[in-house]
Amino acid sequence: MLGWDMSAALAMANALSVDARAAAEFLPVIEAVMARHLNQQMDGSREADP
Predict the structure, then answer these.
(1) CA dist., res. 32 & res. 27, Å (int)
(2) Which of 4, 7, 20, 29 is deepest in the core (most CB within 10 A)?
(3) CA atoms within 13 A on the CB side of 2
(4) What is the rounded CA–CA span in Å between residue 37 and residue 17?
(5) What is the pTM of this model?
(6) What pLDDT digit, counting tens, does each position of 6-35 carry?
């Protein structure tokens, strides 16, 4: 996984009434952590499969 569609993430934040500046500040950090953990999970499941 490479990352999120930030336009869609910001649109979702807007729909949820999250401040746009806060979303723009925090979404990249959240995305990086999520992508790292998801990639680790996918790597682990490949190693478990024969």
Answers:
(1) 9
(2) 4
(3) 2
(4) 27
(5) 0.61
(6) 899 999 999 999 999 999 999 999 998 988
